[in-house]
Amino acid sequence: MTRPPGGVPPRPPGKPPARHAPFQIERQSFRRRRLIDAACALPLLGWVLWWLPLLWRGADAPMPASLVLVYIFGIWLGLALAAARLVRLLGRARNTSPLPEGDDP
User: What CA–CA distance (Å, rounded) separates 48 from 80?
Assistant: First the structure.
């Protein structure tokens, strides 16, 4: 069969049209990508939570500085713990993923 100029090659008669396979990825790969997304979003979450005390100015009574400092250092500690947890989970996800063929450990 010849290809018409500028067109798609003709399909042989009796052959059904080619369909694309559904897009699916392995569960471990999907989970690892979501963990990477969470690790990328963690600094943004921390930034939003650290700037949250600026909204407290609208309160009738001023907020004591000691409470604000406890809040900020609590957020800092929570972010550090969340980052440590994500690093541990990403390490596990890397260890359980199969190596591509041809790669030696």
Answer: 15
Residue-wise pLDDT tens digits, 48-98: 998 887 777 666 777 788 988 899 899 999 999 999 999 999 888 777 655
Closest CA to 82 of 28, 38, 44: 38
Is the pLDDT at 105 greater than 60? The verdict is: no
Task: Please tell me the pTM assigned to this model.
Answer: 0.59
Domain spans of the chain, in order of start: 27-96
DSSP secondary structure letters along the chain: --PPTTSPPPPPTTPPPP-PPP----HHHHHHHHHHHHHHHHHHHHHHHHHGGGGGGGSSSPPPHHHHHHHHHHHHHHHHHHHHHHHHHHHHHHHHSPPPTT---
Radius of gyration of the chain, Cα coordinates, nearest whole angstrom: 27
- CA dist 87 and 91 (Å) reads 6
